[in-house]
Amino acid sequence: MLVFLSVILITLSFAVYFYYKTKQFRTSLPIRKKWYTSMASVALGSFVMFFGINQLLLFHTVVTYIIAGIFVILGLGLIVYNFKAAKHYKQFLAEEARLNK
């Protein structure tokens, strides 16, 4: 059951990543583009983290624990860093939209 849930979360995070990357390429506003990039990176970080968790659930070897641990830590780092960046850019989105009407 946990493996099935992790596969769903992996698929969902990849779909969100693809959504924000598409939005990033379609916009011409620079701050909005950076915000979409940050949100896409949050989704990519969750993809990496959930993939590491999935590997921990599937295989039980020392090598898997080491590599999956690296994936989980790297994914968490991407999520935290890019969430802070997205929060920073979000405060300028309304002003940018107002200036570029």
From TrEMBL:
- Which superkingdom is the protein from? Bacteria
Which keywords does this chain's UniProt record carry? Answer: Membrane, Transmembrane, Transmembrane helix
Q: Please report the name of this protein according to its UniProt entry.
A: YtpI family protein
Q: List all membrane-crossing ranges.
A: 6-22, 34-53, 59-81
Query: Per the UniProt entry, what species is this protein from, by scientific name?
Result: Planococcus shixiaomingii
Write one Pfam family the protein is assigned to.
YtpI
Q: Which InterPro entries match?
A: YtpI
